[in-house]
């Protein structure tokens, strides 16, 4: 009998909540998130502004809602970049033994020395800060973890009897990779995607905080935090609301990743 | 074992060489000429050409690379195109500040993670263990800079116990130095501690299942005694790897935390370099950070062998 998996449920609910919030923000937000209104600067939370307003009189709740789009968009593209490069690399490294496989993994390890933030700052220095450079940098920095995880999964698949049979039957490596290896590592890809998503959310927030992420006026949680810094003494709520949003999003994707891992590998569940 | 040492050293040196090429090449593909960038768009062509000559930017790229690398090996990081000041001493000064943060953060992380993770593992089916697990999940989700902002709100704004930002060198005023170090170090350390706790927990859980621990218990040792004498050293091996990776994260995390607490560390230097378009400075700081990360991983590799006798004979 399948046990209830609390991580999967909690993570799923949180992630679904964020997705719904982002979708709703396309058709409705309490106020225009970028509307500057000097008359309503730094309002305390009230019935008309649930989370209050910021120094430009923009509604904080609306900004958080629209900011979730930025977060999800950056996460999806970054994880996409990481998966598109990392998964084939991992499978290739597992299938091509001897030195080419070794070289791939060494290069992969080397990339670990360039964390997302550092890479994104370098990209920002060279190409200018934008959402695109942030996404690509975060994505490239997440390639090594993808490649590593997929390689270890693919190595196991390569030892199975059906792959041996396929090879004995004379199948070429590429069809084997596509037909046997890839379908058997999809669970690993899903788990890794969820974990990488959490990392991407963190990195995007940090980058926007530093001014290397999404440029204004597009709302982003990290930049809301940065703008809140000058009001820490007078209006700390400006930091707390986007801060909670970031933490909840990261928590959601981490829990989802944990839950998926337990789901796909029941043996692990007991050990966690 | 000697073979393994030689292999690891080789990998480390090759990684250093390749990453230096990567960093240099990346900055070299830059659209636009560093001299033009440094002088601004209004500079005359003669001034730009003069600056290019002065800093050797008119030479072929490989010559520039080996020149830079040679300087790096001697601790000479060159002269900034923008401020015309030697970069080496600045980087060295700022690195010390960042190292204080990273070391203090790491100590806090360990002090939090080792006991918490062990208790979580030993009591993993009890309420106290589960509560700690949930707490660490939340800790993992909070980025260090956010923790920093929250700590400022509580301890500087509300309670007024500690300064909200600033930096004083330890030699100048040790008491002030400590006061200003506490919040940034806590924001780095608590978050890393939460991450590390989860690895300590699973490493200890793994060890708890081992036969030698059951034997130790059968000999009459209490659970925590057995774990203390036989378990922790074994659990230390996987935790060490994570610790190495985390040191790298801490180093990079410090970049952002320095911004929160207005600390003149390596991170602020890097960010200032980027905003001033001081490309050589950026290249140098990135390289120093990458060297630090590779060095830490190399040391972890060596410690691995020292901690786990099985690895010494395995190769």
UniProtKB/TrEMBL annotation, chain A:
The chain crosses the membrane at residues 7-28, 72-96, 108-126, 132-150, 188-211, 231-257. Keywords: Cell membrane, Membrane, Transmembrane, Transmembrane helix, Transport. InterPro entries: BP-dependent_transpt_permease, MetI-like, MetI-like_sf. It is found in: Cell membrane. Belongs to the binding-protein-dependent transport system permease family. Its main location: membrane. It is a multi-pass membrane protein. It comes from Kribbella soli. Gene3D superfamilies: MetI-like. PROSITE patterns: ABC_TM1 (PS50928). Residues 68-257 form the ABC transmembrane type-1 domain. This is ABC transporter permease. GO terms for biological process: transmembrane transport. The keyword Nucleotide-binding does not apply. SUPFAM superfamilies: MetI-like. GO terms for cellular component: plasma membrane. Pfam families: BPD_transp_1 (PF00528).
Automatic annotation (TrEMBL), chain B:
The chain crosses the membrane at residues 12-30, 99-122, 134-161, 181-200, 235-257, 285-307. GO terms for molecular function: dipeptide transmembrane transporter activity. Residues 95-304 form the ABC transmembrane type-1 domain. InterPro entries: BPD_transp_1_N (IPR045621), MetI-like (IPR000515), MetI-like_sf (IPR035906). It is a multi-pass membrane protein. SUPFAM superfamilies: MetI-like. PROSITE patterns: ABC_TM1. The keyword Iron-sulfur does not apply. The keyword Transmembrane applies. Its main location: membrane. GO terms for cellular component: plasma membrane. It is found in: Cell membrane. Keywords: Cell membrane, Membrane, Transmembrane, Transmembrane helix, Transport. Belongs to the binding-protein-dependent transport system permease family. This is ABC transporter permease.
């Amino acid at each position: 009998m399948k046990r209830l998996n609390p991580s999967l449920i909690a993570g799923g609910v949180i992630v679904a909540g964020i997705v719904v919030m982002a979708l709703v923000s396309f058709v409705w937000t309490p106020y225009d998130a970028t509307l500057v209104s000097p008359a309503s600067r730094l309002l305390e939370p009230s019935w008309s502004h649930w989370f209050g307003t910021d120094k430009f009189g923009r509604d904080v709740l609306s900004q958080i809602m629209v900011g979730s789009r930025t977060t999800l968009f950056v996460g999806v593209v970054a994880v996409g970049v990481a998966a598109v490069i990392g998964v084939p690399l991992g499978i290739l490294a597992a299938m091509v033994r001897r030195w080419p496989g070794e070289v791939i993994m060494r290069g992969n390890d080397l990339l670990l020395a360039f964390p997302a933030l550092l890479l994104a700052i370098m990209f920002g220095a060279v190409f200018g800060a934008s959402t695109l450079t942030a996404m690509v940098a975060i994505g490239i920095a997440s390639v090594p973890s993808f490649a590593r995880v997929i390689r270890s999964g693919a190595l196991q698949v390569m030892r199975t009897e059906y792959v041996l049979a396929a090879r004995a039957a004379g199948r070429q490596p590429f069809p084997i990779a596509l037909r046997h290896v890839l379908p058997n590592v999809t669970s690993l890809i899903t788990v890794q995607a969820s974990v990488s998503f959490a990392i991407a959310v963190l990195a995007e927030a940090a980058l926007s905080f530093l001014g290397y992420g999404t440029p204004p006026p597009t709302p982003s949680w990290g930049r809301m935090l940065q703008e809140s810094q000058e009001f820490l003494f007078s209006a700390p709520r400006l930091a707390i609301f986007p801060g909670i949003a970031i933490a909840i999003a990261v928590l959601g994707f981490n829990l989802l990743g944990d839950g998926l891992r337990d789901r796909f590998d029941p043996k692990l569940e007991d050990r966690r | 074992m000697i073979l393994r040492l030689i292999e690891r050293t080789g990998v480390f040196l090759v990684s250093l060489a390749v990453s230096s090429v990567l960093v240099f090449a990346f900055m070299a593909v830059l659209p636009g000429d560093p001299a033009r960038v440094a002088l601004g768009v209004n500079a005359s062509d003669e001034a730009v050409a003069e600056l290019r000559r002065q800093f050797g930017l008119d030479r072929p790229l490989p010559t520039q690379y080996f020149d830079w690398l040679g300087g790096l090996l001697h601790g000479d990081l060159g002269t900034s195109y923008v401020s015309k000041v030697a970069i080496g001493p600045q980087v060295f000064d700022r690195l010390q500040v960042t190292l204080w943060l990273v070391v203090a953060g790491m100590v806090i992380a360990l002090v939090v993670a080792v006991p918490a993770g062990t208790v979580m593992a030993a009591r993993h089916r009890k309420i106290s263990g589960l509560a700690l697990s949930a707490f660490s999940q939340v800790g993992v989700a909070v980025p260090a800079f956010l923790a920093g902002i929250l700590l400022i709100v509580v301890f500087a704004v509300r309670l007024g116990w500690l300064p909200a930002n600033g930096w004083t060198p330890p030699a100048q005023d040790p008491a002030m130095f400590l006061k200003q170090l506490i919040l940034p170090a806590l924001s780095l350390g608590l978050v890393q501690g939460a991450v590390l706790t989860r690895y300590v927990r699973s490493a200890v859980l793994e060890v708890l299942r081992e036969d030698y621990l059951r034997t130790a218990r059968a000999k009459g040792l209490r659970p925590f005694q057995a774990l203390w004498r036989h378990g922790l050293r074994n659990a230390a091996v996987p935790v060490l790897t994570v610790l190495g990776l985390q040191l790298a994260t801490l180093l990079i995390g410090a970049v952002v935390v320095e911004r929160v607490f207005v600390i003149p560390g390596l991170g602020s230097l890097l960010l200032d370099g980027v905003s001033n378009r001081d490309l050589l400075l950026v290249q140098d700081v990135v390289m120093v950070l990458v060297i630090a990360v590779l060095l830490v991983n190399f040391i972890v590799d060596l410690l691995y062998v020292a901690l786990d006798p099985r690895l010494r004979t395995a190769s």
